[in-house]
Amino acid sequence: MPDKITGELRGSRNLKRLEGISQTRQQEEIARGLELGLEAADSIHDRTISLFSRGHQPAFAGINTFMKAPYCEDIRKVGEYEAAYVGIPFDTGTTYRPGARFGPQAVRQISALYDGYSVDGAVDIQEELDLCDAGDIFVIPGNIEKTFDQVSKAVSYIYTAGVFPILMGGDHSLGYPNVRGIAPHIDGNVGIIHIDRHIDMQEMDMDERMHTTPWFWTSNGHGHEGRDVSTSHHSHSHMHDVGLSNCPPKNLVQMGIGGWYGSRPGSAIARERGSSVMTMTDIEELGIKKAAEMALDLAWKNAKAVYLSFDIDSIDPGFAPGTGSPEPGGLMPREALELVRLIAREGLCGMEVVEVAPPYDVNQNTSQLACRIVLDVLGTLTTEGKLGHRARCLHQD
User: 187: closest CA among 96, 72, 304, 107?
Assistant: First the structure.
């Protein structure tokens, strides 16, 4: 132990910073609740409480959106917000246990627990970020390719409206159409940091693109030896594209890979294309901070933007059992949260959380962790000035 404690405690600095943030949104919500939900019964002493719930409280009441944020039903108005939660309830690409189609709704439900105020991060998302819930993309059950087209068009619409996309799956096949909705609008290379227990880079799985294949297709078409890049397209003529020109494999970093399932075919492609694979053993030996530093260096090298793909099965299933392909030995929750915060500090063009399968969950633990991944990323982007409007919320002395 150190001989003495110097300086202020970290918590007190964070609380002091939070004191400088306005409470305008909170006051507006109270006023709105009273207007739309009527005044409470006479026996209620706290007159900020309404008769019908129209705000954050009680957490178990009301109609759920993500974080009880405004529902952007008219998607043409999504550009009025800075970030949008977008559900993609598709799990036809699952190769083991289905159920991830229920992930977006489950995360919405547990998100009601949170109010956006974080002492750890010294951030108040309700005040500092214009967040909405854009609802769910209309996916086509049983048809991967048509769903991919729907997803890419929808994500493109969100991104080109100037809104940060929070994409909640659904299975990991969505990684490809999600990035395909963003990358064409970025003038330069896009790096991808992919946190998972499985490498998800094989060409096909059971003769189709599946949740095991997104990064093959994202990085396809780039120069690599020993393979005709047009082969896949010719042998599967229903697939109308073969890759993204500005997502080179050298900027793809996969973290947490390991276990006993699903990495053999993808490992060969990763070696062939020269992408970076950081196993769970590597992360243990390096430590979270060093692993994040290395991943950022690789993903950002000569790139204009970085995209975060987080598969919830990267977290040990003892903490996150609600997923389609659980694999013991993954990240602990605290490690996962630290990792995404470190990655988000440099800025992101978008993010996805996938493979939350509520039918296998216990006490909503997996959905809650997925929600926390999103919140910790949003909080970090806001405190680092990459997203939101912190300056507008500070009290003027």
Answer: 304
